[in-house]
Amino acid sequence: MRIGVITFPGSLDDRDAQRAIRLAGGEPVALWHGEHDLKGVDAIVLPGGFSYGDYLRCGAIAARSPIMAEVIDAANGGMPVLGICNGFQILVEAHLLPGGLVRNALGTFVCRDQNMRVENTSTAFTNQYEAGQEITIPLKNGEGGFLADTETLNRIEGEGLVVFRYLDVDPNGSLNGIAGITNERGNVVGLMPHPEHAVEPGFGPDMPEAMRSGTDGLAMFTSVLQGALAR
Ligand SMILES: NC(=O)CC[C@H](N)C(=O)O
């Protein structure tokens, strides 16, 4: 399976996402924000970082990049699209996911190993987790507070569109501790924590070996490959 990773000016984690895809058994394909070409990929990852220097709002300018016209069409056609942190912000700004992301409640950048619960295992990127599984993934953002109006929030909760929920602490002041969401179809997923930084023992969260391996993020990438096999 060929999975495209889009690089925007200021992207930071594009190569980590490519590496995670390779470790999961997929073939990463580098895509460039300024082109209209998805190079025939089967799925897309919008990586973390500081696209366009976070000017205006995080993700707002990247959401209007040339390649996003193709991403929006592909997502609406059912292609799996994952947005990690800045990528989540871009998906929200592109209206592929509901709600908005605002400055962390503390007002500062937050960087920590974050516990969260997998709430929805029927998306393209979470089918290899168990329902209710608790995982630990690095988190690092300045604008990660998830907001939505009451009607939208009720719809997100009512339709089971929450994919990940923070455990122990809500690091950025997200409504209902929401860490990640999906669209109705389950092919578009966005989350603030970084699964691509938790794919190899010894390089992910600093966990006692007996508890967890530090590779809790890998299943997001094997999930999309598994979905392709099932289709
Ligand atoms: N790690 C990231 O992708 C950071 C996203 C964004 N620049 C923020 O600070 O919120």
UniProtKB/TrEMBL annotation:
Q: Which InterPro entries match?
A: Class_I_gatase-like, PRibForGlyAmidine_synth_PurQ
EC number per UniProt = 6.3.5.3, 3.5.1.2
According to its UniProt entry, the function of this protein is described as:
Part of the phosphoribosylformylglycinamidine synthase complex involved in the purines biosynthetic pathway. Catalyzes the ATP-dependent conversion of formylglycinamide ribonucleotide (FGAR) and glutamine to yield formylglycinamidine ribonucleotide (FGAM) and glutamate. The FGAM synthase complex is composed of three subunits. PurQ produces an ammonia molecule by converting glutamine to glutamate. PurL transfers the ammonia molecule to FGAR to form FGAM in an ATP-dependent manner.
Query: What positions constitute the catalytic site?
Result: 85, 194, 196
Q: Which NCBIfam families match?
A: FGAM_synth_I, PRK03619.1
Query: Partners and quaternary state?
Result: Part of the FGAM synthase complex composed of 1 PurL, 1 PurQ and 2 PurS subunits.
Keywords assigned: ATP-binding, Cytoplasm, Glutamine amidotransferase, Hydrolase, Ligase, Nucleotide-binding, Purine biosynthesis
Q: In which pathway does it act?
A: Purine metabolism; IMP biosynthesis via de novo pathway; 5-amino-1-(5-phospho-D-ribosyl)imidazole from N(2)-formyl-N(1)-(5-phospho-D-ribosyl)glycinamide: step 1/2
Q: Does Nucleotide-binding show up as a keyword for this record?
A: yes
- Where do transmembrane segments lie in this chain? none
Reaction catalysed? N(2)-formyl-N(1)-(5-phospho-beta-D-ribosyl)glycinamide + L-glutamine + ATP + H2O = 2-formamido-N(1)-(5-O-phospho-beta-D-ribosyl)acetamidine + L-glutamate + ADP + phosphate + H(+); L-glutamine + H2O = L-glutamate + NH4(+)
Q: Which GO terms describe its molecular function?
A: glutaminase activity; phosphoribosylformylglycinamidine synthase activity
Chief location of this protein? Answer: cytoplasm
Q: Per the UniProt entry, what species is this protein from, by scientific name? A: Lysobacter korlensis
Q: Which PROSITE patterns match?
A: GATASE_TYPE_1 (PS51273)
Kindly indicate where the leader peptide sits in this chain: none
Designated name of the protein:
Phosphoribosylformylglycinamidine synthase subunit PurQ
| Gene name tied to this protein | purQ
Where is the protein situated, by its record's location annotation? Cytoplasm
